[in-house]
Amino acid sequence: MSGRKRTLEAFSFELVMTLVAIIALILIIAPSLVVLIVSFTSGFSLRFPPPGYSLRWYAELWDAWQLHFAAKNSLIVALWATGLSVVLGVAAALAISRSQALSARLLDSLFMSPLVLPALAFGLAALMLFSLVGLPVSPLTLVIGHTVVCVPYVVRNTVAALAQLEPTLLESSAVLGASRLYTFRRIVLPLIRPGIIAGAFIAFMSSFDNVPVSLFLRDAATDMLPIRMWQDLEGKLDVTIAALSGVLIIATVAMVAVMERVTGLSRRLTN
Amino acid sequence: MGAAPASRDVTSYGMGLAAPLALFFLLFFVAPLLQLFWLSLHNDTAGLHWGLGQYLHFLTDPFSLSVLGSTLLLGAEVTAVCLVLGFPIAWLYQRVGPRLQTIIILIVLLPLLTSVVVRTFAWIVILGRQGIINATLQSLGIIDTPLKLLYTQFGVVIALAQVQMPLMTLPLITALGRIDPNLDDASCSLGAGSWRTFFRVVLPLSLPGVIAGCTLTYAAAITAFITQSLVGGGQMLFMPMYLYQQASTLQNWPFASAISIIFLLAVLAVVSVFTTLGRLSRGYGGA
After folding, report:
1. Which of A70, A210, A233, B55 would be a feasible disulfide site paired with A228, CB 3.0-4.6 Å?
2. Rounded percentage of chain A residues whose pLDDT exceeds 90
């Protein structure tokens, strides 16, 4: 790159690319900043910039019991769905990661398909099946539905972590007389743990944020946070939702910062 | 299947470990979809009379067809915007130091992990009658009455592009990272300009990433129920909301099933077109 002549032509290219990139990055980040600022408004509307600043809507949020109830449900379902996804997903990843067999490739495609298929169609299908077998909508049906759409993240990240594992490590361990279980516990698991954690984190976030599956598999007793927020927004533009959004944005930033430290999340998703 | 312990291949695990998840998917993913398909082949809600009535209804109804058309078009528009805006981000990522790289990735990543309702809500604040765009234009005296930005195709495309941008950018960053930087230099030192090098060398070599990004963005954009309904409002109907209305409000499960199957097939068709292109482009990139 150093020897390249800085012609006008090269300059125009780099200027355009850099400018568009900066505009795109601003476009990505701006909405979250706008919501954060508006959530501190002292007024009753979502006017931007706000007429004044206060914490009144955060105080309002403190008493919004419907939102608390929905948040609690979402959290419980997300934790169960993540746990189930990790147990099922890591085992499946171990089986299919190093296998070239056709069955392994087919299973891989099957496990990944919830990522591209319209989740709303799956939500309706799951509801119809549960009502056919006489299983009423409950936290259990929600956990099952969420697990189907969240497990791909665990499988993908675990497979990626296993692919980076040196086979010679496992062979040496076996040669030195370690059992498969011992090798798994002491060598494989510690090395792939960041990948599992990263996958679990993304699975958790996508369950907590899931709408299309919850839409069909929930009822009033199992209200879920994103749906509660959506319905609140359909009715009226409530500033309390801005405060809740502020809380969610800050929580997300904090969790991503922790995950970046623990698992190197950013490198993991670009490799 | 099952691991044969005698072989002692210590680097791989038996396929049996995939059985629990395979069984789970069979029961709760494959079976529901099969039942969905089964019901869509019935003319009545009880599922007693076989027939293609639901599909005929959809395919002969101009309204249903226009909903399908506008959904597929929406996906194409969002994907195009994401590609045009996402590519320069990936390009910039390869030129900056590690510190800035981490910052760029985190900026790209944050929206992916932020609640979709929150991201969509932000666009209501921005595009609304009293939103930033209208407020700025009015205070500058460019317009007198607020522009209608919310509940328009433009609004939906921009909001969806922002919401789905990470899905495009991440595979692009990966793809550009795999290109040998020497090729870029070689092309330039052989006299090709930067623009020419970009379109003739960098872009073709990054096609696998472009295609991966387009597939994910397209699939996500056309199924983005929340963003479509909140930013699009009541007048704009896309497939997910159409499906939801038929299933939930009207309780017409057979027709909703047929809509789901048609929607699934449309997504699969688009994905397989992209996948085929991807296979061709890998051949091209390796040449």
Report:
1. A70
2. 52
